[in-house]
Each structure stands twice: as structure tokens, then as C-alpha cells.
Amino acid sequence: MNFKNSEYASLDRNNNYYMVGEHQQRGLSFIRVSASNEIEFWTMPFMQVMDVVADPNGRYMAFMHNTGERHSQGVQRAMGMLDLSSGKWIQVRIPSFDSAVSLPVKAVQ
């Protein structure tokens, strides 16, 4: 396989190798190379991915990506997952800081 580039490498417990790579025919994709050298691709629906990590059991890949939406402080980032068995892209919703519940912590002396 010829890749133009690859980045964000990760391994699972079974020594499957995961990365984001650009392939000449498939474009920008999440890629899994199994321990037996079988290669699988999932074409990415967005372009700016960062901080990719594979689930230790090889069920999904978690990642951060730019949403393309701008606000006063720059580009918005979001978290997502790719379910590797179904190929489904899942948005991970994180509540805003304003909606967080404050938990009191007792001082330790």
C-alpha cells in the first residue's frame, strides 16, 4: 500500500496498528493494519483530525477534530468515535462548563 503520509499512530492489545493516513485512491482515512498485515480503511468525513487513540480492545477509535465553525476565540473542536465494527461515526457530546456540577472537596492536612 502506498500512503502519502500517516500520523497519530496507536496500538491495541492485539498489536493491531491504527493511524490516520492519506492513500492515493481512498483519500484521508482511519486505517487499521492487523498483526497479520490485513489493512482496513474508513474514509474520514472531515479533514482536520488530531489526538487519535485506539480502544485497547480494538472496538473503536476516539479522536478530536476541528468542526470548521468559528467563534470569537478561533476554531471549535469536537470529540468523536468511530465504531470499527459498524463503520459508524459517533459524535461525543461534552456538556458545557457552565452546566457542570461543582463537587466540594474536603481539604486534607
Structure description:
- The protein is mainly β and 109 residues long.
- It has one domain.
- Helix content is 0%, strand content 56%.
- The chain has a four-stranded antiparallel beta sheet with strand order 1-2-3-4, with no helix packed on it.
- It starts with a strand and ends in a 17-residue tail after the last strand.
- The model has no long low-confidence stretch (mean pLDDT 83).
How would you summarize the topology of this molecule?
Layout: E1 3-11, E2 17-23, E3 27-33, E4 39-43, E5 49-54, E6 60-71, E7 74-83, E8 88-92
Describe, in short, the structure shown.
The chain is mainly beta and 109 residues long.
As a percent range, the share of helical residues equals under 10%
Number of domains as seen in the coordinates: 1
Beginning-to-end CA distance, first to last residue: 59 Å
* Spatial order of the strands forming the largest sheet: 1-2-3-4
Strand % is over 45%
Tell me the number of strands: 8
| Individual helix count | 0
User: How would you describe the shape?
Assistant: globular
Provide the structure class: mainly beta
Sequence stretches where pLDDT stays below 50 over 5 or more residues? none
Mean pLDDT: 83
Rg over CA atoms: 17 Å
Order of helices and strands: EEEEEEEE
Main sheet makeup:
4 strands, antiparallel
